[in-house]
Amino acid sequence: MRKIAFLILSIFTISSSIAQINSSTKSKNQTELNLTLSDDREILNDGIIYRIEKDNQTLSAHKNGKQMWKTNIIKVCGKPDVGNAQIRYIKLNKEKINVIFGKHSFVEVDIKTGKTKFLGAD
């Protein structure tokens, strides 16, 4: 019985340590978010937070607690032909954020202005 209790306690301690490591590095050097694999919703880069809002359709940028811009990908580009009308993936590049919404629809967002450009779908 003691061995089982020790084993359970050890597993709990290890999993808690791993969770703390993951949460402390959540958005430090991250440049992409895949909502199908993670619950993360923010990328922090050069003091700017790029956030996928709760509606899963809106992308926004915040600096020093103030919103710089906000764009609703679905309203700007329209509903996708295939898949749900929500953001699935974002990747931060030097001047743009590449976004995949629906199943195979692609968008580019300017990181300074939030200007959204539909690139197409496959």
Task: Describe the protein in words.
This protein has 2 helices and 9 strands; from the N terminus they run H-E-E-E-E-E-H-E-E-E-E. It is α+β, with helices and mostly antiparallel strands. The chain is globular and about 35 Å long. The model is unreliable at 15-27 (pLDDT under 50).
Tell me the helix content.
10-25%
Please give the order of strands in the largest beta sheet.
1-6-7-8-9
Count every beta strand, where a strand is a DSSP E run of 2 or more residues: 9
Describe the main β-sheet briefly: 5 strands, antiparallel
Shape: globular
Distance between the termini: 58 Å
Strand content: 35-45%
Query: What integer is the average pLDDT?
Result: 84
Low-confidence stretches: 15-27
- Derived from helix and strand composition plus strand pairing, the structural class reads alpha+beta
The secondary-structure element order is HEEEEEHEEEE
Radius of gyration: 18 Å
- The number of helices is 2
Layout of helices and strands:
Elements: H1 2-24, E1 32-34, E2 42-45, E3 48-52, E4 58-63, E5 66-72, H2 73-77, E6 87-92, E7 96-101, E8 105-110, E9 116-121
Antiparallel strand pairs: 1-6, 2-3, 3-4, 4-5, 6-7, 7-8, 8-9
Task: Describe the structure concisely.
Helix content is 23%, strand content 40%. It is α+β, with helices and mostly antiparallel strands and 122 residues long.
